[in-house]
Amino acid sequence: MSKFIILSILFIGSELLIALVFAVIAQVFYHKIGLDFKSIFKGVIERIFLFISLACGYIEGLTFFSALKLATRLRHHEGSKDMDGFNDYYLLGNLVSVAVVFGYVYAYMHFDTIHLFQVITRL
Predict the structure, then answer these.
(1) Residues 6 or more apart whose Cβ sits within 8 Å of residue 93
(2) How far is residue 6 from each of residues 17, 51, 71, 90, 111, measured CA to CA in Å?
(3) 3-state DSSP call for residue 78?
């Protein structure tokens, strides 16, 4: 298999898993039931932006992303009872999202040295 196909399968599989994990986190911290497809789509777009930025060496993309997230967060209004749950959900979601992108970039940059990818490439 080619590098593109392997990384695409990794990306799609990871994004499906992330959607399920975020749905569970939303239920625990924010009391949202079900999958929010709008949020899932925004998260995928955010991770694609971060991946492209970091893979191309533009670390400033992470700062830009953080500024955008902060700017959109400042406009969020909720009652004080729900605020702590939302803040925890927001923080965890962004940390997990950025960590996943770091994993994507690592897999992309070190594809040839990762043993599992070498084995799959030979199939």
Answers:
(1) 22, 25, 43
(2) 17, 16, 35, 30, 10
(3) coil
Query: Does residue 4 carry a pLDDT above 60?
Result: yes
Pairwise CA distance, residues 119 & 123, whole Å: 7
Q: Could you tell me how far CA 23 lies from the centroid of its own chain?
A: 13
How many domains does the structure of the chain reveal? Answer: 1
Read off the pLDDT of residues 6-37 as tens digits, 9 standing for 90 and up: 999 999 999 999 988 888 877 776 677 778 88
Distance (Å, whole) CA 30 – CA 86 = 6
The position carrying tokens 């500024």 is 67
Rounded to two decimals, the pTM is: 0.81
Q: Which domain holds residue 63?
A: 3-122
- Please give the share of the chain, as a percent, with pLDDT higher than 90: 49
